[in-house]
């Protein structure tokens, strides 16, 4: 096995595992899941998915509703979601051209899990804040 640096102080051991008799995961499945979660797990993608759940929006409407996102970051987020088949971009032949973004069926299927994750975060926020405070106090005492 070889160690491959991921980021400073962190190493990942490359393994080539096989499906086990009990249905364990193959390493390539973990890599695929990791890549998908990286796309849908970032804060901007989650917000775009939730906002587009109410129907199609134009770029500037999305930018206004999200607040705090740069034009470049919104462009990159929308392109990534479009590439992954979660968002559809429609260009209308008007002057000036009108572009709308909407969720695909696949994107709509993501709404419930994202909503549930948000609800979980809201219902456990106080406990997480308390754990963070305890951790930070312990670290600063060391």
Question: SSE layout and pairings?
Answer:
Blueprint lengths: L2 E5 L2 E4 L13 H15 L1 H10 L4 E2 H8 L4 H13 L3 E6 L5 E6 L1 H37 L1
Antiparallel strand pairs: 1-2, 3-5, 4-5
Index terms:
alpha+beta, 142 residues, disordered N terminus, two-stranded antiparallel ribbon, Arc Repressor Mutant, subunit A, 5 helices, globular
3D structure, described in words:
- This protein has 142 residues and is an alpha+beta fold.
- The chain has one domain (42-141): Orthogonal Bundle (Arc Repressor Mutant, subunit A).
- Helix content is 58%, strand content 16%.
- It has five helices and five strands.
- A three-stranded antiparallel sheet has the order 3-5-4. Strands 1-2 form a two-stranded antiparallel ribbon.
- A hairpin with a 2-residue loop joins β1 (3-7) and β2.
- The longest helix has 37 residues, at 105-141.
- The chain starts with a strand and ends with a helix.
- The relative contact order is 0.10.
Order of helices and strands: EEHHEHHEEH
Give the mean pLDDT: 84
Low-confidence parts lasting 5 or more residues at pLDDT below 50?
1-20
User: Could you give the order of strands across the largest sheet?
Assistant: 3-5-4
CATH architecture: Orthogonal Bundle
Q: What is the CATH homologous superfamily assignment?
A: Winged helix-like DNA-binding domain superfamily/Winged helix DNA-binding domain
Number of domains: 1
Number of beta strands: 5
Rg, Å, rounded: 20 Å
Give the proportion of residues in helices. 55-70%
Number of helices, where a helix is a run of at least 4 consecutive DSSP H or I residues = 5
Using the coordinates above, name the CATH class: Mainly Alpha
Alpha carbon gap, first and last residue: 35 Å
């Amino acid at each position: 096995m070889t160690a491959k640096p991921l980021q400073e102080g962190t190493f990942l051991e490359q393994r080539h595992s096989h499906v086990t008799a009990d249905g364990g995961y193959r390493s390539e499945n973990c890599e695929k899941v990791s890549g998908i979660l990286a796309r849908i797990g970032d804060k901007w993608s989650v917000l775009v998915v939730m906002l587009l759940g109410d129907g199609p929006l134009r770029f500037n409407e999305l930018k206004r509703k999200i607040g705090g996102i740069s034009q470049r970051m919104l462009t990159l987020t929308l392109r990534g979601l479009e590439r992954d088949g979660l968002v559809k971009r429609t260009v209308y032949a008007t002057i000036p051209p009108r572009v709308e973004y909407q969720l695909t069926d696949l994107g709509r299927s993501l709404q419930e899990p994202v909503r549930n994750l948000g609800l979980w975060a809201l219902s456990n926020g106080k406990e997480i804040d308390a754990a963070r405070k305890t951790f930070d106090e312990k670290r600063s005492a060391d």
